[in-house]
Amino acid sequence: MELSVEGERDMAVATLVGHSAYLRPEELFSLRCQDVLEPASTTGVYCHWTLLLGPLETRKPTKTGVFDDCVILDHPSLQWLGSHLRRLKNGREPHEIIWPFARDRYAQRFKAVAKKAGMEKWNLVPYSLRHSGPSWDRATRHRTLQEVQRRGRWMTEKCVC
Predict the structure, then answer these.
(1) Rounded distance, CA 23 to CA 53, Å?
(2) What is the rounded CA–CA span in Å between residue 28 and residue 32?
């Protein structure tokens, strides 16, 4: 919220995407416009935006060595993110990074708003999103432990905890 209030709307969107999809910072900041896939339908199973991680043509797999992995942005309370993702993609080249800001600037702003919110003692960094998303999904009972493990692309349950 604070990023948005301070005029950093795109950073706020990136924060919610990273949180919801349990992304590592490298995954979040390597997303190209063509890796952010629009829904194929307005209803049913194909009505959600999807993130393509480790696209084969980049020859750079995910941390776990997988190519063409997908994370669906399906949280009911975050469906409005689609209009912002569409705006970010609009008029841009497919190979361009979707975020119109530098990773280091994001990290600085992230840290600054955490401090402003009184959370400085927790040393929050963008990587914190990777674990705050699963914690939120488990605390709200939105996903089971097994669903969180699959979504987070963790090979073993031990890595989730």
Answers:
(1) 9
(2) 9
Amino acid 161: pLDDT: 58
Given a cut of 80, is residue 8 above it in pLDDT?
Answer: yes
Residues with Cβ within 8 Å of 20's Cβ and at least 6 positions away in sequence, in order, are: 73, 75, 78, 81, 133
d(CA 70, CA 34): 13
Please state the pTM of the whole predicted model. 0.92
Are 18 and 30 contacting, i.e. CB atoms less than 8 angstroms apart? no
Report which DSSP code applies to 86.
H
In this predicted structure, the answer to whether residue 9 has a pLDDT above a threshold of 70 is yes
List of residues 6+ apart from 61 with CB closer than 8 A: 54, 67
The Cα–Cα gap between 61 and 140 comes to 31
* pLDDT value for 64: 83
Q: Quick check: 33 and 92 in contact, CB under 8 A? A: yes
